């Protein structure tokens, strides 16, 4: 072993660190949103102009000149014309925009400050504090919004500052409610408890644990309310309650122009257009900021995922033939996630088959593409961002990607069923397990509720749940983890599937329950002749249940063979090292060795073997071209140019 051979992924000369950054930056994401970008450019332009207004060669906005009154736009010396007192409209527009923008932004900041403090304090402390503060906020909210603003200005007297206070006050509830909701959600999370246990005081917890988590919400709320605030200020000025003559703001200009709308339309049209442009650009930018800051929106969560993964294939597999009793055949399957300019090749050409009554294991480190492979089989990968870009999946002799949506839906949960890793998140918390089984049965069979219920009870008995009659009325939270997983398996069995795709079904369970579940699956397989695709990262589990094993690394199968071949005569150095990682009972002296380094990022795979960086047998030839999958005979195959010695059995 050379000392440079087994190091982290960054030592690979074929990659550069910059391209590896997993997600595009916030700014890049914002720039990709063209409407938001347009808003940002317009707003930046307006802001720039209002900042440099004092040094612009503009006439005094308040200087009257009766001789020059009501000039049309493009008049000599007055680009936008003049108003009824002969004041230059361009100058008033720019100074007015300056005032409106300043008042709108200040009001937002004031409302955000007080609203956030109220929201965080009441959400964090809860109980009586929360009650008193929120009832106060409710009282503010009981008044119609603009009426309250009018009442406040009426009480304080007309004027720009008073309008600012009024607008800020009526918007405080909006911030307080939003921020309180978010704070309540995180105030009792484990990391806050941990901070309390470490001895931090309330103020420090609020500042260092709560605030950073609610900050995006505060920013989003500000960015989406500034536009509103500008409109509201303009509204008050329009009614004569905001800016007082001769001072110009967009609302008062509109109000003055309104009186002459028939004789000099430009007096109201110009400030009106300015309000439109300003509010529009702020809102577009605000929406863009919201999309960037909300991580769920980044991956396109708002776009409803298609019922079937998008299929955009450049090839339909290598056309490999499989034995007659094959239930599932996967031929050069490739699934990618496209995020911006990056495509993540989560599954990069996977071929295997599962015969009748056979259990095939799919093993690999976390992130090697096992789950995406399993989901791709029946088009369950969310699109966007997932796309099946190549290959073919034959189920029961039919091409799944050539089927109609309805046909695929018919197979899902019918002839092919899934069992997932975490049974608590797959079961619906609000329905009894009996009802959920009934739903699974009735989705594929036209039977009465009563018959389906009887079948559900029978299924629960089949997966060895004690007292199935009474247990069927239980809700998921009333069961133990092992029982829940049994319910998951019962649900998969509901329609006598030909194939069960089990994605780490025992990973969340302790070893005794794990052994029971494995035994159960083995029995069911023997009794019903079901085929199983069993996904796991645990070689111990593999030896218990699988007939054949495929080892996956960075989206490709690197070794495939019978369980005996792969476990006892591994051909790929990766398989060998994976097996060496498993501790053995009764052999305390045997050193388990972790595999150094990390799997490569699938958006930037190196040439040659993806494992080369971590392999202690690496040579120059491992880093060029693509490594073929070689047959070692007897159904044992490996994707390595220098397989381990003694593997060809
Ligand atoms: P595992 O082998 O642990 O089941 P997965 O199949 O879940 O791994 O993931 C394989 C790769 O695909 C990982 O690199 C993961 O980051 C990526 N991936 C999975 N789901 C998505 C998604 N929705 N968007 C982008 N990348 C994803
Ligand atoms: Mg997984």
Automatic annotation (TrEMBL):
Q: Which PROSITE patterns does the entry link to?
A: ABC_TM1, ABC_TRANSPORTER_1, ABC_TRANSPORTER_2
Q: Where in the cell is it found?
A: Cell inner membrane; Cell membrane
GO MF: ATP binding; ATP hydrolysis activity
Cellular component (GO) terms are: plasma membrane
GO terms in the biological process aspect are:
peptide transport; transmembrane transport
Q: Which CDD domains match?
A: ABC_NikE_OppD_transporters, TM_PBP2
Q: Which SUPFAM superfamilies match?
A: MetI-like, P-loop containing nucleoside triphosphate hydrolases
Q: Which family does it belong to?
A: Belongs to the ABC transporter superfamily. Belongs to the binding-protein-dependent transport system permease family.
Query: In its UniProt entry, what is this protein called?
Result: Peptide ABC transporter permease
What organism does this protein naturally occur in?
A: Thalassospira lohafexi
